[in-house]
Each structure stands twice: as structure tokens, then as C-alpha cells.
Amino acid sequence: xxxxxxxxxxxxxxxxxxxxxxxxxxxxxxxxxxxxxxxxxxxxxxxxxxxxxxxxxxxxxxxxxxxxxxxxxxxxxxxxxxxxxxxxxxxxxxxxxxxxxxxxxxxxxxxxxxxxxxxxxxxxxxxxxxxxxxxxxxxxxxxxxxxxxxxxxxxxxxxxxxxxxxxxxxxxxxxxxxxxxxxxxxxxxxxxxxxxxxxxxxxxxxxxxxxxxxxxxxxxxx
Length: 222
Prior knowledge:
Layout: H1 4-7, H2 10-23, H3 46-52, H4 55-63, E1 73-74, E2 85-87, E3 93-95, E4 103-109, H5 114-130, E5 135-141, H6 148-156, E6 165-166, H7 171-178, E7 187-191, E8 197-202, H8 210-219
Parallel strand pairs: 4-5, 5-6
Antiparallel strand pairs: 1-8, 2-3, 4-7, 7-8
């Protein structure tokens, strides 16, 4: 996609996202600044303390979010997302901890989300080019019901490289919403190999771009 301003006119997508968010019972307000995503460390788990110590890395990766992915915000502070639960491509329950050792670009999408339709092919292209044993685009569909509509959506948009992760319970969305990380769809989070959140954003981006690849490369560094 080269004409990003045509694909993602801000006012149009904000209006569409607000309607879609209302349908999902969420407030879909997309912002690129401010303090969205901050959280109070509740319980002070050892995983959260481990991740919080990566504040410098989160800032460094956040500073690398430029151009097409400039809306990515650094986690403040980084927190553990290892317990996020969803289903793997076979329908088996899993958590993000099962992907330990991989840098993950986690994206939540739904068939009724108009910006997702524009964004999914770019995420698919990123997975084709950059996906390997150390990095994966994990796109989790949150449609309720069976997988008929999600499968048709992926086929219709030409997506072939993304594995069909799902969570029909909306649990993953509600968990991220409770952490002030999900305001609507799409929502995307960049997570390191230890399950620690580095950066996050609400709204679409051009993931098939040099800016996105540079961001991923920075996140993969120790």
C-alpha cells in the first residue's frame, strides 16, 4: 500500500471506529499521544517487576516508532502480557507465554472492523517478509460465534501467511481494555521474547513499510 492517506483518512476512520466500537461494547477512540496505556502495577508480580526493569528498552523501541508507525507508544512502564489467553490455529487454548522466545506483534481484529480490512494485508505481508523462529505477527480474531466469517474474511482479503488465532469470548480484548491498552479495534502491541510489552497503539497503521520493519528490528535487539 503506497497511498496511506487514502487508505487511512483520520476523520473517516475515527467515525467508523467509533461505530464499530459501540457495536462491540467498547469505546473506540484512537489517539497517538497522551498517557493511554499507563497502568498501576497491581499485585507487583515477579513477571511485572521483571518487565518494568525494561523501561529503557521500551523507550528505545518507542523512539524507533517513526513515520508509518509513529503512533506506537512506549509502555510506561513495561508490563508482562504472558498470561494473555486465546486459541491457537487448531482451536486449542494457549497463552502468550507459549510464544516465549519470540518477539510478537500482537494484533486484535474483527470482521466488522473496517480499518482492519485495510490493515490485514499489510500485517500479512510483514509476516511473510519478517516472520521466522524469532518473530511472529499474531493476529487474533475476536468475532463471537464460529470461525466461518473470520475464514471468509481472510480469504477475501488475500491473507495467507497469518495463522488463524482466535478468541470468541472477547476475553483478550476485555483484559487489554482493563489495562487501558485497548480502546477499540484494531489494537496492536509489540511484545518482546520474554512476554514484556514494549509499545502499543490503537488504530490502523501501514505495517508493510520500512518504518515497521525498522521498529521490529529494534524490538528484537537485547
